[in-house]
Amino acid sequence: MNSIFDIAKSGLFSARQSSTIVSNNIANANTPGYTRQRADLSATVMRKNGYTVGRGVTVKQVEQLRNHLTDQQIMKKDSALGNLNEQNRVYKQLQSTLTSNSGNGLDTQLSNFFNAFSQLSNNPQDISQRNALLSKAKTLMAGFHNAANNLENIARQTKKSAQSRVKKINDLLQNLQSVNKEIARSHANGKPDLNGKDQQTQQLKSLSKLVNVGKIYNKNGTVEVRIGGITVLGGGQVSTVKAETAPGKHVFRLRLDNGKLIKPGGGALAADQSMIQTVIPNTEQHLNNMAKTLVQQVNKIHSSGYGLNDSVQRNFFNSTNISAQDISINKSLLNNPGNIAASSAPGEAGNNNIAIKLSNLQNKKVLNNQTLGSNAVSLMSKPGNRITELKSQIDTQKSAKQLLFNQQQSQSGVNIDNQLTNLIKYQNAYQASAKVITAGRQMSNTLLSIV
To answer: Sign of the CA dihedral 308, 310, 315, 320?
Structure first.
């Protein structure tokens, strides 16, 4: 009789524990990062007189229905999306800096500047035309200055964003270290910390959005983390990642507290590094090359001509200020518009040869086998073209990630209908085991009454 009671009791305990697990699944159906759990039931047997005799059922373990391969693939997509989204964000800033909703971008300002020389050639002695030319020149200078300053601001803001991401990386590594300790402690006590494993996965997913994460799971459930092939969490130790920058320079590196340089490899931080060290400097260089070429080409022609009042040859722009940030007009022209050279010979106020040459300069291929206007259009269009490419890549990655997420949900997610079915199944099992105990008690009472 004892065996009947033991078997029934094991059925009660197993059904109750299974029902508890199912109830927990239902309660966490909408909890982000929660992984469905399942009671792994195993029959209990014993050998007696050469026969195998059933001794009931036991909950061998509680397991998470997680597929690490799917998790790894999703993390790779998170890393790719983090990188693409950050690129997209910075390129949009570049686009707003280099283009104008009013249509008055650098290409238009350059065209207006050279057209003003054309207008001057029609009446070289007209002071109002000379003032109009200076006004167009000032607008062009302001365009260069604003673009250069805005690029510098974007670089500064991107550095600041990258530094905040480095802080977040360190916070995530510290959190993972704490979770590792809890998981290791629970494993040592023979009770796996399933909630800790969910937290571990969520922390790793957050980290993968920032950098390309390499990870190794240990037998006790803890995880070792690598960034750029270098271990930053493992063996009970966690490293601190530091951002290495240089004021006013396009430098952004990651260095561990032990002095090792690491590469983010992917994620938003890799995009920031690329923007700071490559994309923004290349854009600034393109802008500066335009400013330098404009100064040199205009001065070359203008310095060969003469103004209205004397035989002095002058530069139109200050020859020492050749960057987009400091390009400026010769003060002697600003103070006296009559000093603008339109004539090719002294004392010939009606001569317009120089004005015509300066006007024709807009059609000369003087930089990268293109005109200055075409260079401006190329500079302005690059961010927009890249944004279009990024949108396509982002959509592709999002679609791929959604497929993986759906696959993960089918493996690890909680289906309420299925869980309710399981709950009824375990409830029926519990009631059946209770009836076995009742039947056993009745049998025992019957035997006792006979005796």
So the answer is: negative
